[in-house]
């Protein structure tokens, strides 16, 4: 459930008409609902109730400072994948002991920043990274708490670009090698081995792959304990999927996911961490765009919007589906016609949907892309010199711009011309 509903025929973000925001900030823009973000975070809190746990929001899905601040005040930790994200999390008031650092290519500079600023743990993904971290920590006179990300070789049954838990993916160490790698980690002076990490992919719509992975992690926990490691923390990653199309079957609920965690690893007495991104932020955001033209083509009609692939790249990159709805509700029973819904960017890939049935629309009308809160604004670019679109946060009947749209002059002024030119 989200808080983007029609009231008297007008799409609202909580208590604010979306058209009112469009009039104030111009299109296209992203709008997020605080109530939806907090509700989704609360679902995980509820799901893990009774377990010693930390929920680290995967902030790569949505990293605006206002969003991080909102979640941090609710007690969220953060899963960061770069120094930039680490610094954003700290700037939003997240203490180091609630930040986990993931990613296959952490640099020594990034390690240093996190060690000096405070960190809950590094999720280490390879032996060379492990050795580098030990050296960096030792040089600083510190000990780095680590888990090692294992690749359990399970098929997450998701889009190939976001599956991470098969042996051919670049992530983690093969689970079969884990005992040897843990033995080496324990021998390195700058590391404190605290647990195991696993993350098998994103937008998982079934629980079975999680179950397979977590059972392997449970077995590994027992083996590693036998080997003398004090495994006390399990980071179970993120990846729970969301419904992108209203018509589809609903993906598993956080409550069922929580029950699965308790069933598979609950008996081990470990502190449990999870790193949900999309499930918290995805359905908490819309991208709102305006129809520029309706163009009649041969055998098909195009709805040309002012939003484009540079603003929301998921359809071009992952063949992702977003429901696209008119901001002024269509009259019930009105006839729908198919459109190819496209943006103005000079790429055929700038297509949001093909032959999508839409109610009658006119030039100048507003449409909203649902489920655009995750991997939307964060993946935007200024391709075609289209300035980054603004982000707006709603809470009840209030709204505020949380990242303004740069002016054209600001965009141009970011470049510098060498003296010698
Ligand atoms: C991307 C990512 C997540 C979040 O995935 P969602 O599908 O957004 O929940 C969590 N952990 C790691 C290591 C990731 O790379």
Number of helices: 12
Rg estimate, integer Å: 23 Å
Number of strands: 21
Ligand set: pyridoxal-5'-phosphate
Query: What is the count of distinct domains?
Result: 2
**What gap, in angstroms, lies between the N and C termini?**
56 Å
Which regions are unreliable across 5 or more consecutive residues at pLDDT < 50?
Answer: none
CATH superfamily of the largest domain: Alanine racemase
**Share of β-strand residues:** 15-25%
Overview of the molecule:
By secondary structure, the protein is of the alpha/beta class. It is built from twelve helices and 21 strands. Strands 4, 14, 15, 16, 17, 18, 19, 20 and 21 form a nine-stranded mixed sheet that branches. Strands 5-6-7-8-9-11-12-13 form an eight-stranded parallel barrel, surrounded by four helices. Strands 1-2-3 form a three-stranded antiparallel sheet. Strand 17 and strand 18 form a beta hairpin. Helix 2 runs parallel beside helix 9, helix 5 packs across helix 6 and helix 8 runs parallel beside helix 9. The model has no long low-confidence stretch (mean pLDDT 96). Bound molecules: pyridoxal-5'-phosphate. Pyridoxal-5'-phosphate binds next to helix 10.
What characteristics describe this protein?
single chain; 421 residues; alpha/beta; Lyase, Ornithine Decarboxylase, Chain A, domain 1; TIM Barrel; 2 domains; nine-stranded mixed beta sheet; 12 helices; 28% helix; binds pyridoxal-5'-phosphate
